[in-house]
Design goal:
21% of the residues lie in helices and 37% in strands. The chain contains seven helices and 18 strands.
């Protein structure tokens, strides 16, 4: 069994919990996710099974899209509503000021990763240090917010639609918006609505996977890529399956291709360079 399942992760589960369940349902040990969702977050979590795990890193590096609720006037140690409240403030900002503050975070920005995160510093996960009351210096990281729109404002709650790069902490984004407004803020709710082309509309619940099995929802590995399809045979097929590049004419220089064998099976992703088809990632 090889492919990807677009799982809807419910709140209250870790991403690894979902991986464990898919291993149990599928009977396959080689299973991995494509980007951690916090336990309290929910939404799209593509799960790679079998040979598709080779594509996990590529999928994880893709953009993310979220629907978030920012709670103004509350600052917590975890930067989300589940953390210990450090301070509360009255909210005396207008809707226009809120929209202006949110818009200021569109583009390439710098974030200091939160202490309550799985990021490692000195070989130790930050959240484990935070639970012991230890705070360490974290280096700012550059991330990109491609788009951030205010969906609605209801008192202290601000609905946001965010499209961002890998590594963006939405909790930190909410915290920083609150700081910019001078009243503080934290993340109240987070739903990942899209990543790597997988959307909320096509996500499958764990209950459906339990009752119907994995196969009806499994997306074949080659369908993860939109590159042109080419077929190799004979000596060239043997070379490619052994991991070697081959001489290739008539292909677009610099273009990537999905390469299939004479039996129609997906072999690899290759790139045309200097008249040769170079293997980027094997899947056979």
């Amino acid at each position: 069994m090889d492919g990807v399942v677009n799982v809807y992760k419910p709140a209250g589960m870790t991403s690894h919990d979902v991986v464990y369940k898919i291993r149990r349902i599928s009977g396959i040990k080689k299973v991995g996710h494509t980007g951690t969702l916090d336990p309290d977050a929910e939404g799209v979590l593509p799960i790679c099974i079998g040979k598709a795990t080779k594509a996990a890193e590529t999928l994880a590096s893709s953009y993310k899209r979220y629907s978030a609720v920012l709670r103004l006037g509350v600052t917590t140690d975890t930067q989300d509503i589940g953390g210990e409240v450090l301070k509360t403030n009255e909210i005396s900002v207008s809707n226009d000021e809120i929209i202006g503050a949110v818009s200021a975070f569109e583009g390439e920005i710098s974030q200091i990763p939160p202490m309550y995160s799985a990021l490692k510093v000195g070989g130790k996960k930050l959240y484990k240090l935070a639970r012991k009351g230890i705070e360490v210096e974290r280096q700012p990281r550059r991330v990109t917010v491609y788009k951030i729109n205010v969906l609605n404002i209801d008192g202290a709650k601000v609905g946001l639609d965010i499209k961002c790069s890998k590594g963006t902490y939405i909790r930190t984004l909410c915290h920083d918006i609150g700081e910019r407004l001078g009243c503080g803020g934290c993340l109240e709710r987070l739903v990942r609505t899209e990543t790597s082309g997988f959307t909320l509309e096509t996500a499958v619940s764990l209950e459906s996977l339990e009752s119907e099995g994995i196969t009806p929802f499994l997306i074949p590995v080659d369908e993860l890529f939109s590159y042109e399809k080419i077929t190799v045979s004979g000596a060239d097929e043997k070379k490619v399956k052994n991991g070697n590049s081959i001489q290739s004419d008539g292909l677009k220089e610099g273009a990537c291709y999905r390469v299939y064998g004479s039996d129609g099976r997906f072999i690899c992703i290759s790139k045309q360079l200097n008249g040769r088809l170079i293997i980027l990632k094997m899947f056979c």
